Amino acid sequence: MFPLAHERLMEIKNKSLPGAGGLDSADCYRLEEEKFLGYINTPKIIITDHYRFQASYDASGDHVFADGIGVVLGDPSMYNYVTAVLNCYLSKTFPEIWNREKLRTDSNLYPKMLKRFPIAFPKDETTETLIGTIFRYLIYLNRQKHISGLCSLDCHQELIDFYKRIADLLILDIYLTNDLDPRFLEILSENITPTEEEFEYSNDMSLLIAMQGIKKNILDSPDFRKCKFNNEFTNILATIKNNGVW
User: Structurally, how many domains does the chain consist of?
Assistant: First the structure.
């Protein structure tokens, strides 16, 4: 539950074994980063950049910021959207920008880096809700894939790729183009509907079937392949289709 505290106490325990000497004072129990424990039970986004830039939403607040950077938002309803943006395709360019601008000299993340990351919001609430809902889908799908382990079905990754691509397209439109076909958004809104029910961490396989059905309904919509985009989106969609996502 408290990984940082547990890790530190285990270090102290090992040092206090026979032959290791006694504990000098109560200060031996202090944690170097104990200030972070104040965020236990607080929802937060934890960001790491070990092998790749990744943001994880800690909804229950069980974790601390060890080896990462934490983001605590004043408006809890924004967590899904902001985490989705931090995980989008565009965010992968920021580590390279940080290196070029010499914002860091090692592999660690620092708050000053994230201050350079602009969080843009769409003009309409519908797009924001779509991105937040898709992010909830992805939490569930990745959890199902992890639980399945070696027995993971191909459909897990196929659905993850499908919904991730849609989220990336929506976010790309917010940041760069602002030119998605309105009918495309309508088709998504008709099928990807928000719910107050908590399903992200469920093990219910019927949800997997439902998400497969949503994907099929989107692709089978008569107008879906008629949607027109500007040149940038046409190239992106062509790449996606060639990769077998759509």
Answer: 3
Amino acid identity of 30? R
b/e for 60-92, b at 16 or more Cβ within 10 A?
eeebbbeebbbbeeeeeebbbbbbbbbbbebbe
Tens of pLDDT, residue by residue over 29-41, are: 455 555 666 677 7
| H helix or E strand, kind and range, residue 229 | none
Question: What pTM was computed for the model?
Answer: 0.74
Domain that holds residue 61: 39-114
Residues 192, 185: Cα–Cα separation, whole Å: 10
Say if CB 113 and CB 103 are below 8 A apart: yes
Number of H helices and number of E strands within the chain? 9, 3
Instruction: Put the strands of the sheet holding 44-49 in their side by side order.
Output: 53-58, 44-49, 69-71
